[in-house]
Amino acid sequence: MDSLILADSHCHLEGLDLTFYEGSLTRAVAVARENQVRYLLNVATRLDAFPGLISLLSQDEFIYGAIGVHPSEVVDQEPSVDDLTRLFDHPRMVAVGETGLDYHYQFVNHETQRERFRRHIQAARLVKKPLIIHTREASQDVLRILKEEKAEEVGGVLHCFTENWAVAEAALAMGFYLSFSGILTFKNAEAIRAVAKQAPFDRLLIETDSPYLAPVPQRGKSNEPAYLKYIAACLAEIRGVTLAEIAKQTTKNFQRLFLLKTSRTEAHC
Question: Is the dihedral of CA 33, 37, 41, 44 positive or negative?
Answer without folding.
Answer: negative
